[in-house]
């Protein structure tokens, strides 16, 4: 059961106008924002930060940012955010193959730069933080300082969202749950306490040693 009930999408005209951003990325206003708007200042600040972090400035694509967010959300164990980032990545052009093979370091579908960013996201989103001089150096070998700020901005944004949605037990929207079941379910994803359709499994984080992971965390770092 969610910790707090959501407010209707038209509760705040100002928040509703800002939240149109999510119709482009997800196809709906997320239930997380409908709860945040109980304090409109939080909702507005979050939407503003989300837009700033996800804005495309140069080489890092919208799809890559969502995949980085997916890896970070996996490290944190937030299934709601895993579903959302997979859906957003798909809407930004991620193929089924890239979603399925994101944990396979030998996959030719990802560049060395992408793999370095994913490894860094896995380390940076872990608790305790697992970033090492080696993982930082690997990131710097592929990305500029400005790009690293973008990458860490994505990871940090989802640090907030992972804690918000897991603690709130935010209910998954049908579109997000359907995509996650179809594309992440075969690798071990289940909705758990966030289930909308009554299909998900028991509460708890994904087993990070399960079949979705093709390499250990030590290997990733």
Average residue pLDDT: 85
From the helix content, strand content and strand pairing, which structural class follows? mainly alpha
Radius of gyration: 17 Å
CATH class: Mainly Alpha
Q: In this structure, how is the largest beta sheet organized?
A: none
Estimate what percentage of residues fall within beta strands: under 5%
Helix-strand topology string: HHHHHHHHHHHH
- How many domains make up the coordinates? 1
Distance between the termini: 36 Å
Helicity, as a percent range: 55-70%
Strands, count:
0
CATH architecture: Up-down Bundle
Give the CA-based shape.
globular
- The CATH superfamily is known as AhpD-like
* Low-pLDDT ranges: 196-221
Helix count, DSSP H or I runs of 4 or more residues: 12
CATH topology: AhpD-like
Explain how this protein is built:
The protein is built from 12 helices and no strands. It is an all-alpha fold. It has a single domain (56-213), classed as Up-down Bundle (AhpD-like). The N and C termini lie far apart (36 Å). Mean pLDDT is 85; it is low at 196-221.
Topology summary:
Layout: H1 13-18, H2 21-25, H3 31-36, H4 40-54, H5 62-76, H6 79-91, H7 96-100, H8 112-124, H9 133-140, H10 145-168, H11 174-183, H12 217-220
Question: Care to give the gist of this entry?
Answer:
56% of the residues lie in helices and 0% in strands.
List keywords for this structure.
disordered C terminus, 221 residues, AhpD-like, single chain
């Amino acid at each position: 059961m969610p910790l707090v009930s959501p407010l209707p999408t038209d509760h705040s005209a100002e928040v509703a106008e800002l939240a149109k951003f999510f119709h482009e990325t997800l196809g709906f206003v997320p239930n997380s924002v409908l709860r945040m708007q109980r304090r409109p200042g939080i909702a507005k600040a979050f939407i503003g930060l989300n837009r700033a972090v996800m804005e495309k400035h140069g080489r890092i694509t919208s799809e890559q940012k969502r995949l980085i967010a997916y890896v970070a959300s996996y490290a944190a164990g937030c299934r709601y955010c895993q579903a959302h980032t997979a859906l957003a990545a798909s809407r930004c052009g991620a193929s089924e193959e890239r979603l399925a093979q994101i944990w396979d370091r030998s996959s030719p579908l990802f560049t060395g730069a992408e793999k370095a960013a994913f490894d860094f996201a896995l380390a940076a989103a872990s608790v305790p933080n697992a970033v090492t001089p080696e993982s930082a150096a690997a990131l710097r070998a592929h990305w500029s300082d400005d790009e690293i700020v973008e990458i860490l901005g994505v990871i940090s944004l989802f640090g907030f969202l992972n804690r918000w949605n897991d603690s709130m037990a935010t209910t998954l929207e049908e579109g997000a749950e359907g995509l996650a079941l179809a594309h992440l379910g075969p690798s071990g994803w289940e909705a758990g306490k966030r289930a909308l359709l009554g299909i998900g499994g028991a509460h708890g984080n994904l087993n990070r040693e399960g079949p979705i992971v093709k390499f250990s965390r030590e290997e990733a770092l």
